[in-house]
User: What shape does this take?
Amino acid sequence: MTWPDIDETDAGDAILSTERLNLRPHRLSDAPFMMQLNSDPEVVRYTGNAAFADEAEARAVVERLAKQYATWRMGRFVVLDRRTGEKLGWCGLRWWEETEVADLGYRFFRKHWGAGYATESSRACIRYAFEDLGLPRLIATVMPENAASIRVLEKLGFHRTGPASIEGMPALGFELRRA
Ligand SMILES: CC(C)(COP(=O)(O)OP(=O)(O)OC[C@H]1O[C@@H](n2cnc3c(N)ncnc32)[C@H](O)[C@@H]1OP(=O)(O)O)[C@@H](O)C(=O)NCCC(=O)NCCS
Assistant: This one.
């Protein structure tokens, strides 16, 4: 795999764009950004994740995400401000081979919460999943205390399914079927 070295504001490798955002696959150079994102305990509170121990761990995750995109044409995408190129967080799909289903996930720096970025980027990912990849449905898994995330799923039209788990902790399952 090659890692393009272009300026972050360059929309050249954005695979999805919205009014305010560009979404692109991860590059190895995103490891420090991912480390910074997970270093806020409030950001990872309901995710089942912890802060990365070191940059090597963040690089391994970024590499896995990039490979997932290369293999399946889906993955968690870096979400950038379309105007400034600032990395705001990530949003995207994860393919679960065993169950052959993709889940939707998102995570943003706290200073950007409430601006509608999770909803806006998710809408682009949902369109991509249904129209470009032809997937019949998407799932999402949320801890019951994560009211903001549940609200995002409701706005996107997801429906509750049944109990689920995140890293062994009780969670709520959601589903969205292609119309
Ligand atoms: C969940 C998260 C991605 C939402 O991102 P965001 O860009 O702020 O989401 P949006 O602005 O698109 O929408 C948030 C909605 O939740 C609502 N909301 C926020 N906090 C809330 C709370 N405590 N209770 C109820 N609703 C809440 C907002 O008002 C908004 O709804 P509205 O548009 O009807 O007003 C963000 O909070 C985050 O990164 N959290 C940490 C990571 C995480 O938990 N990811 C999800 C794991 S399942």
